[in-house]
Write a structure and sequence with these properties.
139 residues; mainly alpha; 7 helices; 0% strand; globular
C-alpha cells in the first residue's frame, strides 16, 4: 500500500529508518498512513498542499507557515491535529498504524513540523509526486 511505502520514505527522511526495533520508525508510518489516506481521498500524488490548507483553515496558519518558511518551526498539539483533520481520516490513519486516534494525532503533531520543513526547502510546497519529492530530499 502507498501508505507503507510513504512511511518507509518518511522514516528515512526523519532519520528513523528502522529506529525502534520492529516498529520501523512509528512517526514515519503514521505520517505515511496520513498522506496515503489524503492521496486516496483525492489529494492526487502530492497531498501536502491540501494538508497545509486544511491546517490553515483549522486556525493553524501560523504554525503551518512556520514549517514551510525558513524560521523556527512552531509546535502543534495532538488536540490541534485532531481538530484539524477529518474524523474519518484520523480513524483510517490510526487503524492503518495500529494505534488509537489520540496516539495517531500525537505522533502527527510531533513529526509533521519536521517533515513539512524538510519537504519545503525553498519556502514553498514543491510540485511533483510526494514520493519523488521525499526521495529528492534524502541526503
Amino acid at each position: 500500500m502507498a501508505g507503507n511505502d510513504l512511511g518507509g520514505l518518511l522514516g528515512g527522511l526523519l532519520g528513523g529508518g528502522q529506529q525502534g526495533g520492529g516498529s520501523s520508525g512509528g512517526g514515519g508510518n503514521i505520517l505515511g498512513a496520513l498522506l496515503g489516506a489524503l492521496m486516496s481521498k483525492g489529494g492526487g500524488s502530492n497531498p501536502l498542499g491540501g494538508l497545509l490548507d486544511g491546517l490553515t483553515k483549522a486556525g493553524l496558519a501560523d504554525q503551518a507557515q512556520s514549517w514551510v518558511g525558513s524560521g523556527e518551526n512552531q509546535p502543534v498539539s495532538g488536540a490541534q491535529v485532531k481538530e484539524a483533520l477529518p474524523d474519518a481520516t484520523l480513524q483510517q490513519v490510526a487503524e492503518d498504524a495500529g494505534v488509537s486516534p489520540e496516539q495517531a494525532a500525537d505522533e502527527i503533531a510531533q513529526q509533521l513540523p519536521q517533515v513539512v520543513d524538510k519537504l519545503t526547502p525553498g519556502g514553498q510546497v514543491p510540485s511533483g509526486s510526494l514520493e519523488d519529492i521525499i526521495r529528492q530530499q534524502q541526503l
